[in-house]
Amino acid sequence: MQRSTGLLLATVIGLVATGCGSGEPATPSAGGAKAVTITVACQPARTAPKERQAWDDDVATFMKAHPGVTVKSTDQQPCFDPKTFGPKLAGGQMETVFVVPVTNYNDVIGQGQALDITQYTSSIKNWNDLRADARELVTKDGKVYGVPNVLYGVGLVYNRALFTQAGLDPNNPPKTWAEVREAAKKIAGLGSDYVGYGEYSGGNTGGWHFTQAIYGRGGEVLSADNKTAAFNSPEGKAVLQTLHDMRWVDNSMGNKLLIGWESLMVAMGGGKVGMMLGAPDVVTDVVTKFKGKTADYGITALPEAKASLSGGEAYMINPKATPDEVKAGMEWIDFRFNTVGKGRFDFARGKAIGNPVGVPDNAVYGDSPTGKAIQADRVKNASLPVENYQSYVDSAASIAPKAEPMHAQEIYAVLDVPMSAVLSRKDANIDDLLKDAETKVNNLLAAKG
Amino acid sequence: MISGARGQLKDERRERGDGGVRRAPADRRRSGGRRRSPRPIHVQFRTIISPHQLNSRWGRRLYWLALVTVIVVFTLAFVLPLYWMITGAMKTPEEVAEMPPTLFPAQPTLDPFFEAWDLFDIGTLLVNTVYYALGGWLFCMVVDVTAAYALSKLRPMFGNVILGAMLATLMIPPMVILIPLYVTIVDLGLLNNPWGLWFPAAANGFNIFLLKRFFDSIPRELIEAAQIDGAGPVRVLWSVVLPVSRPILGVVSIFTIVTAFKDFVLPLLVMTESDKMTISVGLSQTAGAVTQNQVMGGLVITSIPMIIVFFIFQRHIMAGLTAGSIKG
Amino acid sequence: MGILRRNLTAYGFLCAALFCFAVFAWYPMVREFILSFQKTDLINPPEWVGLENFKGAVQDPAFGEAWLNTVEFTLLALLCGYAVPFVVALVLNELRHARAYLRFVVYLPVMLPPIVAVLLFRWFYDPGPGLFNQILDLVNLPPLAWLDSSSTALISLVIVSTWMNMGSATLIYLAALQNIPSELYEAAELDGAGVFKRIRHVTIPQTRLILLLMLMLQIVATMQVFIEPYMLTGGGPENATVSVAYLMYQFAFSQMNYGQAGALGMMLMIVLLAFAAFQLRTTREDAA
Predict the structure, then answer these.
(1) From 3.40.190.10, 3.90.25.10, 3.30.230.10, 3.40.50.1480, which CATH number describes the A2-152+311-352 domain?
(2) What does the record say about its membrane topology (chain C) (predicted)?
(3) What pLDDT is attached to residue B35?
(4) Number of domains present in the structure of chain B
(5) Per the count of CB atoms within 10 A, which of A216, B213, C179, C287 is most buried?
(6) ipTM for the predicted complex
(7) pLDDT > 50? residue A18
């Protein structure tokens, strides 16, 4: 029913556009009925020319293998931008194949903004090897709405070069928050523009990292029935207290508030930030998008971790796509993102263009046969000593993954407030801040019903 | 009421005369006796301070002090930021982060400009922005001039009601109807389509108001003469009304173009594809991911077209600025 | 020309404008009203939800702060953006030299796209190598946190906003000052009025109408503040810079709740219209 509404709307819009005489003529199906054009999201930006070239090569290879299919890429950065995601979806401007982060699965699927692709999953040859819990997240009422693309848990990303410089052992990164504080202090001591530990405080990223931290300490954001806030707890206080003390007692967090995803990534890539919370993809992004030096970055287990916020993304299909477009789109997803040794798993090429190969940045295939084949290939072409990441990999097996809270964006917006408070005010009263945020979230949950 | 652009031009003319120190018999007479003050401060028309006070010994000292202070403060407030932007774009990322900062780039380089050009894809963004601005201007002029002409010279039934309804839109701030306007654009399928910017731009009550008022002042006889010669309404508009309306057309044109070039929120929502964005939106999207000197390079390149426009059309812009708001 | 024919021709000339206004100016006003009573994600058919959206907007955790911030921003912006240009115009009007230069530089920022000013000041506000803290350091003052503290963030936004907008107000005042007949000053001087008395009794009454008009324009303009919090602070720290317009944007495009955004837009529209009506009446009485 939702699909037919979508189609109807598409037709109406088409008619209106033609009626106004302003619509561009639809792409003519040249000759055979097979001609189909799809748009695909997430082409790497111009700021990462080698990555972009690799993507373009893949597009060319794919188009050669699928005559009649034309692939157009969009390179909006970041590929998922909460600011333009809504408008694009609402305005029917979403690509045929687009990416959705875990945080937004519920919204997008719930509002009928992604196509039911249950009958197309066979296009993904390794579908059954994808981790069951990842597939579960994109399934609703027995119908599949996406192809899980990335899955990971949070760890502690750190700059190995700065550890060495500060007299710390990069092979023995901190395992407790006390050790994190000590290390941060030493790194900050390297100079006035060095930051021991970087953390977000605004644009919903503050609340997001608060959630990472409180999960790690074994706390909760919401109660089990999702009806009340649960972060006003000893764990929540500990998160804020640690940050407050690092910022104001140790002075190891720099003096700049970081707002929005790129801000901390740029700082990390600049090579003057010692540590941050992050998944392994942070390492990849810092190197490929933000000019970090490949060998400098390591990742280890989240200190004292009891659980870990799972992050990730899935590719979904535009509900307005025609069956031919869906088929082509799924084949693209299969080729570029789900084939051992091809596309993003072409580690030989990755190594050749200087990517940090060896980072265990994706557990979406778990230890299925495909997952093992990918891992073997990754290790074979590793450009980095894979033992740098072993402690993270080991811990990932034992730390329980934990999903994002309901209404994540609204709650993150509320949690930005205590995060920005402890990082911007020395006299911030943590008890009051948490209590205040608790009231706000409770009201919000009550209003949402 | 509000006086016309022509009234303003009069001001300009009046002011042009007082720029420098010129031959002014009255003043020379007034200060002729003083030896220590060879160059009296010339006063063309008086303001709060009387010429007499101004040319007293303390008045003059205070005047020069005030003048120098104002020049220094204005330069610091409005020119220094731009200087900092330009030199910032000529420094290396390390030099930009240096504390204390360097006043001049140690090794001036133009590389950040080229890097910014590539990273932001400024070529595409600029072409887009110019295309949207000029296209919007053309459409806006056709729509608003014809409408103002009809309301002013053809005087249809309900003309005043229509004019009133158009002017009423001026009371509604753009931000307030942003969401429904956006939703309407979405419904019409105009996302990522220049018409999504051009249609709303043409619905400009202020332009119609300015144009209509100017057309109202064109003498009837001029038009009647043309009509006797057998000219239809289109001919009258084209060969009688438009030629005498050049000043107001210039003012409206420049403001329409400049507004389109500066616009941010609507293009942010309407032009979402990276190869269709305007320069403002494109900069805002990528600025977080590049170095500070590259950001500054991008900003300098973005500013240049507007600064050139300002240099060329300075007089028109300043005249137009006051055209609509001066109450005579 | 017959009446019918004249009307037909006139409406022929008017049709393009009528279309643009109807669809892109008048209809959105009506649409805002409809939208605020509907739940819509633009994909599925909208549902009528009564006052649900207004309730949702009022209950949003940042609703109260957004209004307070907007009012505070407007008042601060008036202080900076309304009084300062007038004083500047007064001073400029007294100067006999470098007038072209001064007018040019004061208007220069107005020509720049707002994004340039905003990104430029984002760098100046950097607590480390940013220009402002370096200047403070130069004169031996302690650094400020600018955008990074809830106590200074809002005023920092006001400074950017004033910098990029004050040029037009200044030039408008300047033009108004030049229209004051000099005889009035001469008469006041003969009555023995000093400089400040002349300002009070001649300058201000003579420019009263323009001052009132600008007051209204400025309040309406600053109440819509969006790009500054959007680009510089993301509404933080501690919601200190969430404006109504910014919250509206968040409702629509972060929470995809267009109805709730419409409801908030309605509230802002009502406030501004009420204000404008009040102001208009004062101005009219004044003019009479």
Answers:
(1) 3.40.190.10
(2) Multi-pass membrane protein
(3) 47
(4) 2
(5) A216
(6) 0.89
(7) no
- Res B44: pLDDT: 65
Per-residue pLDDT band for B324 (boundaries 50, 70, 90) equals low
CA nearest A319 in C: which residue? C43
Average pLDDT of the residues in C78-96: 86
Count other C-beta atoms under 10 Å from residue A65's C-beta: 10
CA A16, A19, A20, A26 dihedral sign is positive
pLDDT in tens, A125-176: 999 999 888 898 899 899 999 999 988 889 999 999 999 999 999 999 999 9
Among C44, C56, C250, select the one facing A447 at the smallest CB separation.
Answer: C56
Cβ contact, residue pair A192, B99, below 8 Å: yes
Count, residues in chain B: 328
What 3-state class would DSSP assign to B4?
coil
- The residue in chain C having the minimum alpha-carbon distance to the alpha carbon of residue A260 is C234
Residue A407 backbone zone (phi > 0: left; psi -120 to 50: alpha; other: beta): left
- Structure-block tokens of residue B278: 């305007």
The two structure tokens encoding residue B16: 């042009």
pLDDT score for B15: 41
Region B233-239 average pLDDT: 89
Phi/psi at C238 (nearest 5 deg)? Answer: 55, 40
Nearest CA in chain A to C240: A417
Neighbours of A417 (CB within 10 A): 26
Q: Are C150 and A87 inside 8 Å of each other by CB?
A: no
B134 and B228 fall within a common domain: yes
The minimal CB distance from C254 to the residues A113, A257, A409 is found for A409
Which neighbouring-strand residues pair with A150? A313
Interchain CB distance below 8 Å, C16 and B142: yes
Pick the range with the lowest mean pLDDT from A77-91, A131-145, B242-256. A77-91
The pLDDT score that the predictor gives to residue B26 is 43
Q: Which residues pair with A152 in a beta bridge?
A: A311
Contacts of A2 in chain C (CB under 8 A): 43-44
What mean pLDDT comes out for the span A255-281? 87
Q: Is the pLDDT of residue C4 over 70?
A: yes
Question: Quick one: pLDDT at residue C280?
Answer: 76
CA distances from B106 to A270, C135, C163, C218 (A): 21, 19, 29, 43
- Tell me the sheet residues that pair with A276: A157
**Kind and range of the H or E element at A276?**
strand A273-278
Provide the pLDDT confidence category of residue B243 given band limits of 50, 70 and 90.
very high
Inspect the interface and report whether the beta carbons of A22 and B274 lie closer than 8 Å: no
**What DSSP letter does each residue of A291-334 carry, written as one string?**
---GGGEEEEEPTT-SEEEEEEEEEEE-TT--HHHHHHHHHHHH
Quickly list DSSP for C16-56: HHHHHHIIIIIHHHHHHHHHTTEE--SSSPPEE-TTHHHHH
Do A2-152+311-352 and A155-310+387-448 share a fold? yes
Q: Are residues B80 and B141 in the same domain?
A: no
Q: Is the pLDDT of residue A81 over 80?
A: no
Among C26, C3, C104, C37, which residue's Cα sits nearest to residue C258? C37
Between A294 and C238, the more confident residue is C238
Place of tokens 């060095």: A194
State how many domains chain C has: 1
| Structure tokens that stand for B96 in this block | 């930009």
Q: What is the pLDDT of residue C108?
A: 92
Nearest chain B residue to A41, by CA: B273
Cβ–Cβ under 8 Å, residues C226 and C245: yes
Q: Look at strands A143-144 and A139-140 and give their pairing.
A: antiparallel
Average pLDDT, chain A: 85
Distance CA B299, CA A182 (A): 41
Rounded to the nearest angstrom, the minimum Cα separation between A6 and chain C is 7
pLDDT tens profile B258-284:
999 999 999 998 988 888 999 999 999
Range of the domain at B31: 26-109
